[in-house]
Amino acid sequence: MNFKTITAAFLAVGLAGCSSFGGGPASPPSTGGIPAVAAATVRTTPVVFNQPTAKVAIAPVTIKLPERRGLGTYTRNVDCWVYVRPIRDSDFPPGAPLTVELRNALVGSKVDVVPGEKPDVAAAQGVDYLITANVPLAHADLCINDIFNADPADVDAQVTVAWEVWSVRENRVVFQTTTTGTGSAKSPQQVITPAVLLAMADATEQLLQSAVMQQYLTFGHPNLPRVATPIPVGQNAPAGTPANIPLPGLVTAPGGVPAPAPVPASALPILVTLPASGSSDLKAGTVMIGKSAGFYVGDEGYVITSAAAVGAAATVTVTDASGKSLPAQVVRRADAAGVALLKLSAAPASALSILPHRLAAGDKVMTVGASGSVSGAPGSDGKVAAKLTGASAGAPVVDAAGNIVGVAEGNGSYLPIAAAFRALTLGVVLTER
Questions:
Q1: 330-to-113, 251, 284, 420 alpha-carbon distances in Å
Q2: Which burial class, exposed, middle or buried, applies to 116 when counting CB atoms under 10 A from its CB (0-12, 13-18, 19+)?
Q3: What is the band of 336 on the pLDDT scale with cuts at 50, 70, 90?
Q4: Which of residues 271 and 42 earns the better pLDDT score?
């Protein structure tokens, strides 16, 4: 074989199949403020949601790679020759296969994904979130061991995805992040596509690994305040108030005195952190306020109870399952819904898990000292009739699996937990399934 034949074979490797970026010792440069990430040696472990998730739609994946058209040079990489030049849009698989890979990863994690692609929020009505994905940066090495360009290629790919999660109901972005996935594959066609698709799936799995994303899919997104200043009870926030004061924990009366007044429409949300999984011990998660009851929400000492239990008091005494008496501040009271929010200085050992879903007639429910079944659909006031005779007002109502679904009314019915969160302006939007 002469020199010209060898050179021609090398050119076939580079031009026929080796549309690749990287392969040399240098890392790919940053693009658009997103740093290049070194390829991972271990793929991300998929997340599997064991509870129903929020309903999501996906937009078609878009590809916006930078224009870098240098021909590059050959460099020796271990046991093969790798042609080095930037990936262009023409090298990359089109958006449709990437979108399919995104969907497969979400479905594999048991995320509730609606059929088809939705290009924007307007087309995604009826779901909770729209997920958009853009690929601004990619890297791949295509290695052919056969000098005659005949064997399958070994391909390593790295794909960076810029994600946006839109709240369809609010028509706004509630979460943005960037993940970089990796993939390795053999390609008989000597193209980078198989590895790129694996990298896209890995980037999606990294998105689902995010604690914030898991919170949104399980419980809903934080209802972030648009104004961050204390608001006097019964008054509206002044226009143009600067958002440079920390979020208050209490609705305050004029003069700054805490007051258990009804929650004004302009009250700032209180962000309650909900655990990914909670306790199943109904008794341990319940407290008593006189003859009424309440229950821990999250792990920061917040308690939901009935509005009647606190009346006009600014502080109350709470008795936990061990019989210990604890002082609690009345943070908020929502009279129309019949619920109130307390704050204890001590955090509970473990709060009950919350699963906001609608039960059908006949489904079993229980609370402290009573058990029964759902009688029918929610009424015009949003409350659910259930045969919970003898239940204490404010007690947690749980389903057969021990998840909180509502707040007992004391007359056999209950207020759905999502409605209680809305009434108290808590900073998590719970989505009922």
A1: 40, 10, 21, 16
A2: exposed
A3: confident
A4: 271
How far apart are the two ends of the chain, measured CA to CA in Å? 70
| Residue with tokens 């005494």, as numbered in its chain | 317
Question: How much is the average pLDDT of 323-347?
Answer: 88
Q: What is the reported pLDDT for 124? A: 92
- The residue-averaged pLDDT of 394-411 equals 90
| Tokens (6 digits) for 10 | 């090398």
Contact by Cβ (8 Å): 105, 205:
yes
Angle at 416 between CA 357 and CA 267, to 5 degrees: 115
Does position 1 have pLDDT exceeding 60, yes or no? no
CB 216 within 8 A of CB 129: yes
The token pair that represents 408 in the structure block: 């007992």
Contacts 24+ apart (CB under 8 A), 407-412: 407/304, 407/306, 407/338, 407/339, 408/293, 408/367, 408/370, 409/306, 409/338, 409/383, 410/292, 410/306, 412/372, 412/385, 412/386, 412/387, 412/388
Whether the predicted pLDDT of 276 surpasses 80: no
Question: What are the tokens at 342?
Answer: 């307390």
Using pLDDT thresholds of 50, 70 and 90, give the confidence band for residue 248: very low
Distance, in Å, from the CA atom of 231 to the CA atom of 129, rounded to the nearest integer, reads 31
Packing angle of the helix pair 193-209, 95-108 (nearest 10 deg):
40
- For residue 307 the two structure tokens come to 């509005």
